[in-house]
Design goal:
Length: 82
């Protein structure tokens, strides 16, 4: 029953919110990949693609579609050196 109550609460919160941004982290080999998904942003057309992002000394950077291959190559190169 608690799961059902949690789901009802989550969906009512999302209904009331102007925007819903989902941040996740997944284990990939020996590291983690962070991904961001914009479920909705009221009054704005949103990109519905799930995108990787990084957090560094300059802040948060979402990796665009055109940069995804260089991002993946950089991750692989860094892991091979470890």
């Amino acid at each position: 029953m608690r799961l059902e109550e949690d789901l009802k609460e989550r969906f009512s919160e999302e209904y009331l919110a102007d925007g819903v941004i989902i941040l996740q982290s997944s284990q990939v080999e020996r590291g983690r990949v962070r991904i961001i998904e914009i479920e909705k942003m009221r009054g704005t057309i949103v990109d519905d693609q799930i995108r990787p992002y990084i957090i560094d000394e300059n802040g948060v950077k979402v990796i665009s579609e055109k940069d995804i291959f260089s991002f993946a190559a950089e991750l692989l190169t860094k892991r091979m050196r470890e």
